[in-house]
Amino acid sequence: MSDTSPDNPPQPDEPSPPAVESPPPAKKAPARKRTPAKAAKAAAEQADPTPPAVTDDDAADAPAVDAAPAVDAAPAADAPGAWTAPDPAVSVPAPVPPTPGAAATTATAAVPAASATVPPQTYPADMARFSPLPPPPPGFLQARWQGPDYAGGPAAWVAALIGGLATAIALPLSRPGIGWLLVGLVMTGAVWHAARFGPKPDTKVERWVRVGWAVLAVALLAVGTFRDAGWLYVFCVLGAIACGSLAVAGGHSVRAVVVGALAVPLAFFRSIPWLAKGARAWQQTREKSGTTGRIVLSLVVTFVLLVVFGALFASADAAFATMLGDILPEINARAVFRGVLYTLIGGLITAGAIFTVLAPPDLSGLERPATRRIGRIEVALPLGGLVLLFGAFVVVQLRFFFGDTAYIQKATKLTFSEYAVQGFGQLLVVTMLTLVVIGLVSRWASKENSRDRVLLRTLLGALVLLSMVIVGSAVWRMWLYQNTYGWTRERLFFGSVELYLGGVFILIAIAGWKLRATWFPRAAVAGFAGLLLFLGAANPEHFIAEQNVERFQKIDFWYLRALGPDAAPALAKLPEPYRSCALSWMIRDLNANPDQWYSWNLSRAQAENLLDKVQVMPASKACRESERLNDSRR
């Protein structure tokens, strides 16, 4: 067999045979493909200088070869399918075919076996275009409201405990009462004490504005001391929360005022980990903190013991329970659960307000003017179309302003009630949407030169004036409807809201002269709070009852029974049996739910004194007689 056969390749140190003309050799069999694992093993063996142990039998049978060409045991570099371990020091996207001599270099490089066993990964060409996504930007809380950089220590826990105990002891959640005002004053005092250690407003004017928000919040809570209208007091409590939140968080622009009004409700939840972190730190340093920690812990234990043993004593002795009932809420399992729940809620509200006043959110990013601008065409076409549409509607409405009921029915083919009710709801929605449009245009419209400013003032001014006419049309419709069919709480409230929106348009007209007014958002919120205070002072349920008593034949008489103690003086003027029937629900509620000291209310106290002097019929008899008389009038 020839020395150049496939099984015996020529050695590198031997001379190549002379080139002679000969017929083309037969097709060589391809070299056997070696797997990466076998190649790595061979490379490791070649890199090891220690020769393998050879037995005598093997030495006798093995042919004599020189030691120098030991590297020839590796596969030839140009052998088809040969695999070369990648160099870990060189980053290559994909394996490439090795060049001649690469096998020897690889064999002497002593590559680690772990690197040689993992070939580089290859990806489709299309995947190379996609780069890794950048990390998401930090949210508002991480960027602008991280909260205090210290945990809620003993002072925060004491303030939260005081607010929680005041809530558990004095808050009449189911009805308006003086307890709401007392709890508000306690929380205001705790937050005011903590505010001395927080950042101060930049200017003296801003400090007085914060004080004004706090006074407005307390005034809204005070409405429950004098009025019993639950539907009105719900809005007063929500307004008090918003005003109190603005007192500790601040805000000037529309977006900043919205975030500021929601700061304390959001801090309600954020204060939980803040207090928990302070409790852990407090526990670790309690032995070194002196007597403060022991005093607070003793107060908590004392409160728990008094509640538990007081409930047991009250359940064991009726006289003791009566004595406690005169100064405290009813002591039983339900009252204990209520006390724990109210303590938790009141404490977290107080802690949330302290959390906010110590580290208020940074609203500077919300105060900046918008960077995006829309051009004249984008402003002129939509606003011009709205002005034309509003103008056409106002022209039609002017005919109805001077028409009577018969003219309205003849022109619209609707009854008077259908005309009034159908129009008011749509006009109320139109008014609110118009405010949104004006706000968006004022923020994004270009004001770079005098032409842009003149165009904006002209279109917005026309839209505001026409909107005020539409507000007047809606209020007029509701006024006609109530004068014809009677007054209700819903009609009075939504009519008042429509009047308030008309006042907002007046503020927009004032602010539109300079096309920028930082006072407008706060003035709008304060105006709505003023509306609630005005309704509370006007005693709306008494006004409704008084108006309906004068024309009780024209209304649904049964509606009068749903009015509260605020309406008692007016309902007492009704003739019998209407008076006894109209007062029946009020008498039942006052007898079933007597006031305690924390739920005292001026309207309920006056109604109780009045009803003690009025002779009434049995409710069932009075209502049957009233129904019979109403049927006879139809």
Detailed description of the structure:
Residues 1-103 are annotated as: Disordered. Residues 7-27 have a biased composition (Pro residues). Pfam families: DUF4153. Keywords: Membrane, Transmembrane, Transmembrane helix. Helix content is 64%, strand content 0%. The chain is mainly α and 634 residues long. α9 runs antiparallel to α21 (520-538), α18 packs antiparallel against α19 (450-485) and α19 (450-485) packs antiparallel against α20. The longest helix is centred in the C-terminal third of the chain and has 36 residues, at 450-485. The chain is flat.
Short description:
The protein is mainly α and 634 residues long. 64% of the residues lie in helices and 0% in strands.
Element layout with pairings:
Layout: H1 36-47, H2 56-61, H3 102-108, H4 113-116, H5 140-144, H6 154-170, H7 178-195, H8 204-226, H9 230-249, H10 254-261, H11 263-284, H12 292-316, H13 318-327, H14 333-358, H15 364-367, H16 376-401, H17 405-412, H18 416-444, H19 450-485, H20 489-511, H21 520-538, H22 540-550, H23 568-571, H24 578-582, H25 584-592, H26 602-613, H27 619-633
Order of helices and strands: HHHHHHHHHHHHHHHHHHHHHHHHHHH
Radius of gyration: 43 Å
| Poorly predicted segments | 1-22, 26-33, 49-115
How many helix segments? 27
Structural class: mainly alpha
User: Terminal Cα separation, in Å?
Assistant: 132 Å
Number of strands: 0
